[in-house]
Amino acid sequence: MKTLVPEEPDWLQHRVTRIDDAEDDRLAPYRNVRERDLVGREGRFIAEGKVVLNVMLSNPAFAVESLLILENRLAGLTQQLKLCPPDVPIYCVSREVMDAIAGFPMHRGILAVGGRNAPHSIDALIDGMPDKALAVVLCGISNHDNMGSIFRNAAAFEADCIFMDETSCDPLYRKAIRVSVGAALKVPFAREGSIETIVAKLQTAGFDIFALSPAGITDIYDAKPSRRVALLLGTEGEGLPKLLLEKLKTVKIPMSGSFDSLNVATASGIALSRFSRFSGL
Amino acid sequence: MKTLVPEEPDWLQHRVTRIDDAEDDRLAPYRNVRERDLVGREGRFIAEGKVVLNVMLSNPAFAVESLLILENRLAGLTQQLKLCPPDVPIYCVSREVMDAIAGFPMHRGILAVGGRNAPHSIDALIDGMPDKALAVVLCGISNHDNMGSIFRNAAAFEADCIFMDETSCDPLYRKAIRVSVGAALKVPFAREGSIETIVAKLQTAGFDIFALSPAGITDIYDAKPSRRVALLLGTEGEGLPKLLLEKLKTVKIPMSGSFDSLNVATASGIALSRFSRFSGL
């Protein structure tokens, strides 16, 4: 094996496998990361960046399959790479090879392939929830940035889990994981069924559901939370289905009447901050 | 002029100038929008999308120089285009010409060039502020998404203005305007000088400055706002300068100790919601 860069300790040089051919089969899972739908079909996800790598490697629940690191990023990752199980290959490539594999300029230079755990069912997640609980429920969230931000907020305010209907996008898509700074790998979630099914199951389990809407009846700062709260958020454009809103307690974040409503991820942060155990309620 | 699409009313067909040559000089301001720094140098900005166009055309303070609309978007914009002053050219192009001019696939298909107004000075903005006021102060915010989101939140909670130091990025950059859903064109801002200068001037003007920090001393839900509040936010990575934090009241958003802090834009939303006049304080 050829020497990588002079600053690298000996162990790292021996731990890492250098690959100079972008066509090498071992790199197949990383090919065309942006276009490819690794999701579901292959039971894997792609993670990128140092922060997310930290989360993956410090959480034994995730089966890390391999890492792909740009040669000049190795030296800054010694701490992380020490945590990498010895049977997980660490591939190292040049900038040219990295960009050729990824299919676009991959500035971060840190990628990993992980195996997905079996998805949670709504029922299993509800069964495992504590007596005092805070859940987030998402309806039709199709933007990966928003999905990632909502997970980040849920982790920051220690929501117990996130339920989302089948029309919501996949939180384990690369960009959603990145924006979540790894929270998509930490906060338990279920993504199945219709929003009506999720709401019905949560109500049966004793959750008080607060549907966030710019036209909500109660100010979130006046709403009295019970022991089990579920915050329901819909898309920014269409909002939550009218029929559903009519059957639920609706809450609003008090704000200017003359401006477009808040971004849904920001709204989730404000509502989570208000209803989390950290707010002193 | 040739007929555009059958659904267009007569007036629109006569109002719009079709251009079939991507090299046409009238399209020069739109060339390579992504790479070019239209900012400052030419005293202009580029806006994109229907929501932002609405804001521009309904606010006479902005000198709209021209619009560039994809042919198949015209029919959905009749309301907006009626508001467009008669001396402002509305150019219409095919998908091919649009992408060739922009330099990348321009999905939204709605662009406008506006003239920048003279920038506000810190002093002028402070002089114009009401007795009871809420300001946002930004230090080193270099990400255009975050900048845009902070403006959106400031508009939603009716902050009076935003001050930012000279190391913060330009809120009138195309992407920041888009993410702000036009708020970057509405909320008055000053971008000049060091953060120390801004803070000193606000203190002289009687502002109580709350510096947001994960290590802040006071919980934002316990902080007592005075009549003039300025919320100071720094970058996510480095946070606010230590020397500055030592001299100011620091506040924190109460959250999990085991997770990466919030995104700065989300933090701005939570703090603005807490300190805005809508919170009932």
The multimeric state of the shown protein is homodimer
- Unreliable runs of chain A, pLDDT <50, ≥5 residues? none
Q: How far from one another are the termini of chain A?
A: 59 Å
The overall pLDDT of chain A, averaged over residues, is 90
Tally of individual helices of chain A: 10
CATH third-level topology of the largest domain in chain A = Alpha/beta knot
Organism (chains A, B): Phyllobacterium trifolii
Protein name (chains A, B): tRNA G18 (Ribose-2'-O)-methylase SpoU
Domain tRNA/rRNA methyltransferase SpoU type (chains A, B): 134-272
Keywords (chains A, B): Methyltransferase, Transferase
Short characterization:
The first copy, chain A, has 281 residues and is of the alpha/beta class. Chain A contains 10 helices and 12 strands.
How are the secondary structure elements laid out?
2 copies of one chain form a homodimer.
Chain A: H1 10-15, E1 16-18, E2 44-48, H2 50-58, E3 63-70, H3 78-82, E4 90-93, H4 95-102, E5 110-115, H5 122-127, E6 133-138, H6 144-156, E7 161-164, H7 174-179, E8 189-191, H8 195-204, E9 208-212, E10 218-219, E11 228-233, H9 242-247, E12 249-252, H10 264-275
Parallel strand pairs in A: 1-4, 3-4, 6-7, 6-11, 7-8, 9-11, 9-12, 10-12
Antiparallel strand pairs in A: 2-5, 3-5
